[in-house]
Amino acid sequence: MTGKVLTTLRSIVRRPAGLPGWNSIRGRMAIVLAVPTCLLLTLIGLGVADRAADWSAARETEAHVGVLLRAQGLVREVQRERGLTNGLLAGEEGYRDDVAAQRGRTDKARDALRATLDEESGALPDAAVSALWAADVPLAALTETREDIDAGTADRAATLRTYTETVTALIDAESAGAPDGDRRIAQGVQALQALARATEAVALERGSLNGVFAAGRFRAGEYLDFTEVRAARVAALGQFRQLAGGGEEAALDDAFGTTAARRVVGYEARAERGADGSALAVAPGRWWADMTTLVDDLHDVQRAVGDDVRARAADAGSAATRQLGGFLALGALILAVAVALAVFSARSITRPLGALADEADAVAGSRLPEAVRRIQEAHPDTPPTPQFAQPRPPGGAREISRLAAALRNVEDTAVGLAAEQAVLRRTSTESLASLGRRNQSLLNRQLGLITTLESQELDPDALAELFELDHLATRMRRNAESLLVLAGEESPARSWKGTVAVADVVRSAVAEVEQYRRVAAVDIQQCGVRGHCVAELSHLLAELVENALMFSPPKQPVEVYGWRDGGEYCLAVVDRGIGMTPERLAESNAVLSGKGDSLHTAPTRFLGHHVVGALATRLGAHVELRPTQGTGVTAYVALPAVLIQESTSTAVARG
Fold first, then answer.
1. Which reaction does it catalyse (predicted)?
2. CA 195, CA 236: separation in Å to the nearest integer?
3. At 572, is the pLDDT very low, low, confident or very high (cuts 50, 70, 90)?
4. Taking Cα atoms as reference points, which of 382, 459, 465 lies closest to residue 419?
5. H helix or E strand, kind and range, residue 242
6. For residues 191 and 171, what is the distance between their CA atoms, to the nearest angstrom?
């Protein structure tokens, strides 16, 4: 049988092309899903026909759990009678009427259990019936004990033991003949029995401490009995938690989480402090009421667990047993075929997709960036390097082939776009640089002509107009130099020999802004700046000053400060304008440090920051924007020690 199955599987795996639709992913997945689905439907049909076989076993289990719950009802009543009787014998005469009423409820529950045994004895295991009838013997002995209690001759400790032995006999009888076929049902019955022992421990504690609190203190040996009962409760609850499900364990936690249960913990703490025989000031009635609430809650949990076990038994009654061997064989066949088809189909999809994923990672991580870098760094006259052919991914599905082709098209298109962008960027940069150099040359000639006219003009009004024209041309020259900076070109040198005073550099920068009258050099310590960097530092300061003027009120001055800071020299351009948001301030500082957005993606209104950042990089200076105290923004410029030296009185001449 096994050989035929393996032969069939080999024929399926070796000849996939013969299956209709195998050349497409959709067809392969349809085959993978259709075959196990049909086999599962066959299995379900066989299972439905075999469900009725376990009906009698399920009925026996349900009957057993029903009798067990009825026995638990009798246990509850005996426990209640035990606790009330113990309090009465300890001297609490207020319990006498309660004891009499409780005896009637106990006898009624005993009669109900006997009636149930007579009705369900045919559906119960013989061991369970025998054990329950044997447990009726201690119940019958309670009649004599009650007579001694009424006559006042009963000993409290002996009476408590008699009732406890009766309860123990009933609980032990419940475990006799428990079902052991279905694991979940057996585990549920074991959990129910563990909970019954835990409930008995709580009820026994209720009864024993009821007598202790009524007497006002522990007598000899009673405290030891109290600790043993609590230990038995903890052990039984631990066993129940191991066997119970999540919902059953939550119900148990709810029972121990009530207000009455929390008060019980307090009473137990008081009882522990009376271990030396000291007086215990606990009202027996309050202890009895709170403990009875806890015991009743635990019995409710028992009923819930019992109902759950009965439900499991009902479900187990519909399980298949007669043809278990057939089910196992059919299940193994389904599993083998499904696994073989799933593995083959998965490999036919995942292998080419994995290869394409590796290819895409290689394209995105190394090949495409390398190709773009080569294109950008290549000489304009060098022809582009031809792209090497991409390997065809494994797998013959049409969709995989189309995906591979699409990936190659994406790579080719990206490389082509990168080449076009590199050419466009190079052309734009060269055009801007050429335009900037032309403008700078013309403006230098214009400034020279204006200087000549200024020296020849005697009319004050005309001379003032020439000064304004000179100032305008100076600003235009700065814009042309900014264009060269943005294009990455070095502007024609405008340098001075020796050093130039910082104050003169600041005045030169102020002269290149429109509203220079609003700029005040407040406090500038003397220091010299090396001549080769004067033009670029003046340009940098002019950009910062103009930015401060632009975002300040029309009548609000902009202040410039300068001071030495160790080996560096610091300049500050302070405005008290509208200020900047923390997010925008962080973005601007990133641009000034060369870590912000690229120039090609930056908004045009912030190009001045890119100019300042480029100039700061050339100078090795640090530029940072910070909020001005109150309102506005302060631009700090830190010049490195290599650009400065002690102050020298050298005037700045226009280049």
1. ATP + protein L-histidine = ADP + protein N-phospho-L-histidine
2. 7
3. very high
4. 382
5. helix 222-243
6. 13
- Is 349 within 8 Å of 28 (Cβ atoms)? yes
Query: What CA–CA distance (Å, rounded) separates 484 from 446?
Result: 19
Summarised one tens digit per residue, pLDDT across range 613-627 is 888 888 889 999 999
Among 59, 63, 61, 68, CA closest to 302: 68
**Half-sphere exposure of residue 435: CA atoms within 13 angstroms, side-chain side:** 12
**What is the DSSP pairing of strand 558-565 with strand 519-524?**
parallel
Token pair 């202790």: residue: 212
- The number of residues making up the chain comes to 655
Q: What is the 3-state secondary structure (H, E, C) of 119-155?
A: HHHHHCCHHHHHHHHHCHHHHHHHHHHHHHHHHCCCC
Is residue 636 scored above 90 in pLDDT?
Answer: yes
Compute the distance between CA of residue 113 and CA of residue 133 in angstroms, rounded to an integer.
10
Name the strand (E) or helix (H) holding 330: helix 324-362
User: CA separation (Å) from 445 to 49, 96, 334, 526?
Assistant: 107, 125, 93, 33
**Among 81, 83, 97, 95, CA closest to 212:** 83
**pLDDT 10s digits, 243-290:** 887 888 888 888 888 998 888 888 888 888 888 888 888 888 888 888
CA gyration radius, the chain: 49
Element (H or E) spanning 9, and its range?
Answer: helix 2-14
- Four-point Cα dihedral 51, 54, 59, 64, nearest 10: -140
Residue 328, exposed/middle/buried by CB under 10 A (0-12, 13-18, 19+)?
Answer: exposed
**Contacts with 521 (C-beta within 8 Å, 6 or more apart), sequence order:** 503, 506, 507, 510, 559, 560
What average pLDDT does the structure give for the chain?
74
Using CA atoms, how far apart are residues 366 and 371, in angstroms rounded to an integer? 8
Residue where the block lists tokens 């032995």: 165
Check residue 379 and report its DSSP letter. Answer: -
Torsion angles phi and psi, residue 623, rounded to 5: -120, 135
Beta carbons within 8 Å of 401's beta carbon, 6+ residues apart? 392, 393, 395
State how far the Cα of 318 lies from the Cα of 313, in Å rounded to an integer: 9
Q: Contact 63/120 with Cβ under 8 angstroms?
A: yes
In eight-state DSSP terms, residue 367 is: I
Instruction: Assess contact for 637 and 565: CB atoms under 8 A.
Output: no
Write down the pTM of the prediction. Answer: 0.41
The token duo for 286 is: 């309050």
DSSP assignments along 616-628, one per residue: HHHHT-EEEEEEP
Following DSSP, what letter does each residue of 256-309 receive, concatenated? HTSHHHHHHHHHHHHHHHTTTS------HHHHHHHHHHHHHHHHHHHHHHHHHH
Phi-psi region of 620 (alpha: psi -120 to 50; beta: other; left: phi over 0): left
Encoding tokens for residue 89? 């014998």
